[in-house]
Design a protein that fits this description.
- The complex is a heterodimer of chains A (127) and B (501).
- Chain A has one domain: Response regulator (Rossmann fold), CATH 3.40.50.2300.
- A five-stranded parallel β-sheet of chain A has the order 2-1-3-4-5.
- The longest helix of chain A is centred in the N-terminal third of the chain and has 13 residues, at 15-27.
- Chain A has helices spanning 15-27, 38-47, 64-71, 94-101, 115-126, and strands spanning 7-11, 31-35, 52-55, 83-88, 106-109.
- With 127 residues, chain A is of the alpha/beta class.
- In chain A, helix 2 runs parallel beside helix 3.
- Chain B has 501 residues and is α+β, with helices and mostly antiparallel strands.
- Chain B has four domains: 6-120, no CATH class; 131-234, Beta-Lactamase (2-Layer Sandwich); 238-314; 317-501, Heat Shock Protein 90, CATH 3.30.565.
- Helix content of chain B is 49%, strand content 19%.
- In chain B, the strands form five sheets. Chain B has a five-stranded antiparallel β-sheet with strand order 2-1-7-6-5.
- In chain B, strand 1 and strand 2 (149-152) form a beta hairpin.
- In chain B, helix 2 runs parallel beside helix 4 (105-120) and helix 10 (360-376) runs antiparallel to helix 12.
- Chain B is rod-shaped.
- Chain B starts with 5 loop residues before the first helix and ends in a 7-residue tail after the last strand.
- The relative contact order of chain B is 0.06.
- The chains are: A alpha/beta (127), B alpha+beta (501).
- Chains A and B meet through helix 1, helix 4, strand 5 and helix 5 of A and helix 7, helix 8 and strand 16 of B.
Amino acid sequence: MNNTIKTILVIEDDRFIGEMYVRSLVRAGYTVDWVVSGTQGYSAATTKQYDLILLDIMLPEAQGTDVLNQLRNDTEDKIPHSRVIILTNFEQDDESRLAMESRADGYLIKADITPRKLIEIIQQMNT
Amino acid sequence: MKTVRLADYFHGHKGRVSIVAILASILAVAIPTVVALMAGVELSKALLIIALPLALLVPIVIFGVLHVALEPLDMITRAITHVSNQANDATPPDINQPRHEASGLKQMIQTIYDRASLTAAPAADSHPETELSDSLPCGIIVLDSASSVIYANPHAPVVTNSQGVVSLKLQFRADNTLAEWLASDDRDKVSDQRFWERIPDDVPERPERRFFDVLAIYEKGAANDMVTRIITIDRTEAYSEEEEAVDFISVAAHELRGPITVIRGYLDVLIDELGPQLQGDQRELIDRLDVSASRLSGYVNNILNVAKYDRRHLKLHLQEDRLSHIYATIADDLQLRASTQHRLLAVTIPDDLPTIAADRNSLTEVLANLVDNAIKYSPEGGQITVTAEVSGNFVRCSVIDHGIGIPTSVMNSLFTKFYRSHRSRASVAGTGLGLYISRGIVESHGGQIGVSSKEGAGSTFIFSIPIYSTVADTLAAGNNGNEGIIESSSGWIKNHGKIGG
């Protein structure tokens, strides 16, 4: 389960933010795919194995919470080899946040996590 | 006492009266006839002159009189039979004839009906106090000494299961439940009261869920075993407006954080990619942008947290953590803030202090707010010191500056919402929310925050957070439920030692 993180899927609909993560992560040596909607994210996560998925919540077509529930729920785990970090600026209510804790490996506020901090976190997840 | 069938009474009575009337009519014929015979009247003439006419006339008269005389009794009996609870096939009397109205019989029977309707209205087991509680717009619930519901009025948030057992339908917060309170009162108190606000009756997914304010009154050994009396007031509509306000603030925060993410992120990319080529002053300009963006992010967090705190939505996830580790997550950020504004920031938080029960996410905001204030109110080149030490059951952290200080007159207002020092309004940017939310966060940890200051010499803000071992049992009992999750300055990561800042 805890592979060394090399491949990353970024599910992010904001072009500026998506390009920012891709640029920094690629520069740091990761292999990165980037998709811009919930349905594309689900499709990518289930057709290719990623070590880490960075998942936004406010996404077109399907919300990040729904994508995560489809990928990983009480009855099945379609991404057993992947770790998931919710990366959002959306302030969830406490109950929804707690509900996601069982399915995600992290929950970060984008405005507070610059690319440099994100890379540090990924490196620490590898140790 | 023998039960009398009311419907049979009149017929029985009429029969008895009729027999008497027949006997009377026989006597009425026989007596004049006998008298006539004794007076020497011939039998044939006596029969012809007295007996026969009397024998024909008397019964007619008697039955006519009887009918008129017994009619009121017939009607009254039928009316009484009608309003009685006895089964009967009697038709109600027709009281609307003018003669009954004139004689007063109608009024008499109407009185029977009126009296009957007055006494029939309340149910057999009805009590005025029950009617009163049923008519109130709030819920009233009574629990016995076993905490079972023994009474609930129609507005009470209760649910009845398939076995007919009634229970409270309220979702108390896990760390502050009615059951826990009752258990502790049962052990330690004779009488007590507690008030809860915004208690939902269902899970958030249910659109029909309602919110209640709840007052519980406990009295050990109360009469009729009415040990706990609970009053609930449905405040759904008032709270929905607040929910909408929080929703609005959440959406606004999301919108504000988008551009902040881009600004901070691209500055990071620029510093990373252009770093070596940047000249000293160019690097400083970029750092100033970076600090400003990070501050803006802090303001948004403050606004969001104040909105949640004021509406009791701010919930902390207390974990065992070290103050030095928590500070480390924002150390670079705060160092940059100090250096770009030419302040010296010296931090001494020993790594070997006892662990504390902390919500990293919130506590970094307290530290950032205090250091930020110290930077704002210090002169250029001024030193800011952050230290920490053990004080009783707490780890105490001090943020010391040598700035303008705080006049004694405004000391009490410092931690009030939107309070800004009269001196700061013109010269220093801010929202007046930082100290207010810092106090809210520290007190929610079970700690305290305070300040000592001398005008012109500087200020020392001190906050204390409970040592983990002193509250570990309480946290375990409260099922904090986040074992293995480490909060970062802006979220959490599972099974993770530390998130660098």
